[in-house]
Automatic annotation (TrEMBL):
Stretches assigned to the MOSC domain: 179-340
InterPro entries xrefs: MoCF_Sase_C (IPR005302), MOCOS_middle (IPR005303), Pyrv_Knase-like_insert_dom_sf (IPR011037)
GO molecular function: catalytic activity; molybdenum ion binding; pyridoxal phosphate binding
Lineage: Eukaryota, Metazoa, Chordata, Tunicata, Appendicularia
Designated name of the protein: MOSC domain-containing protein
Pfam families: MOSC (PF03473), MOSC_N (PF03476)
């Protein structure tokens, strides 16, 4: 007895078969990877909406194309600049570290506060004039914060300054890190990884990570009578707790990190400036040059990075790691961190 398939079912079966064939033929080749390995979990999250401002501790955050975001507050979304367009130096004006930022009444409103200052309410709708900020040699077209903001920041900082807003972000491939046309580049860790090319006013890449194990290791090496430091010295976004309790293991996380429903990938080790010698609550540089002095005794630049950094005259001390964003998503304190290393 011959089995008859109704015309409608036959059409559905044919369409399904065509779809399967199409998926097989058009499937993108995948990079070979080792299996995902649980390496850590998120211990704390932090953002700094104005570059060098007081940090905000978070329980959860959205990883957007510009970095970590909470509500309408985005990491390193604002920066101050001098009248000549050059970014305000944090070391020269540490009062920036005492500025706090909160969300306003709507998604485009921000409230800036600082000691002995009436709060500044800024609406992005009023920031329409284009400007250019010299950001470590990169000329970034952004928006000016307006005259009211300029007066507020100039009064508080004690020097002429204007606020810069970066709602469109910037392209990290146009920085002095990647790509390098005439010499070695620092992005060898990202070979074979597709990632978003956007950033705001982070030094080079949108996310910084450091482990609390590494912070503990620094503290164990500081002089016995010296006050301990914290992750706030390093102003990182993600503070991780190692599964193996091994300090500096984050240096080896080359590949993709899966946290919550986002994916990030290490671009380089974070090179540190004297700002790490300033405590979260203080606006003076520590006279003993700690923890930089201790870091110099045992932290070394990765050999693969030496020639590039020497060329750029950036042979600073590495501590922590910088990341690009592969996939946006939400992360929370307590989330496990899985490493998928490239094979």
């Amino acid at each position: 007895m011959k089995l008859e398939i109704p015309a409608a079912d036959s059409a559905i079966l044919a369409a399904f078969s065509s779809y399967i064939a199409f998926k097989i033929l058009t499937k993108e080749p995948e990079i070979k990877v080792s299996s995902k390995k649980l390496v850590s979990h998120v211990e704390e999250l932090a953002i700094f909406p104005l570059k060098t401002c007081r940090g905000i501790s978070l329980r959860k955050a959205k990883v957007c194309k510009f970095g970590l975001k909470s509500g309408n507050l985005i990491d390193r979304f604002f920066a101050t600049r001098q009248l000549n367009g050059v970014k305000t130096s944090a070391i020269q004006n540490l009062r920036l570290k005492l500025i706090e930022i909160k969300e306003g009444a709507n998604n485009e409103e921000f409230i800036f506060s600082a000691p002995d200052m009436t709060p500044l309410v800024l609406n992005l709708a009023d920031c329409s004039e284009l400007t250019t900020i010299d950001f470590y040699g990169d000329k970034i077209v952004a928006k000016d914060g307006g005259d009211a903001a300029a007066e507020w920041f100039s009064t508080y900082l004690g020097e002429e300054a204007r606020l810069t807003v970066n709602p469109e972000g910037r392209d990290v491939t146009k920085t002095n890190w990647i790509p390098e046309k005439n010499g070695p580049a620092l992005d060898w860790r990202l070979k074979g990884i597709d990632f978003l090319k956007t950033d705001n006013f982070s030094n080079h890449y949108p996310i910084q990570l450091i482990s609390s194990d590494s912070i503990d290791d620094i503290n164990s090496k500081l002089p016995a009578n010296r006050e301990k430091i914290s992750h706030w010295n390093f102003r990182s976004n993600i503070i991780a707790k190692m599964l193996n309790n091994t300090p500096w293991d984050e240096d080896n996380w080359i590949g993709r990190l899966y946290i919550g429903d986002c994916i990030i990938a290490m671009a380089r080790e974070s090179l540190r400036c004297p700002l790490i010698t300033v405590d979260k609550e203080e606006i003076t540089v520590c006279q003993d040059d700690e923890p930089m002095k201790t870091l110099k005794t045992f932290r070394k630049i990765n050999p693969k990075d030496v020639s590039f950094l020497a060329e750029k005259k950036l042979c600073k001390i590495p501590a922590g790691t910088d990341y690009v964003i592969v996939k946006e998503g939400e992360i929370r304190v307590g989330d496990p961190i899985y490493l998928e290393q490239l094979a």
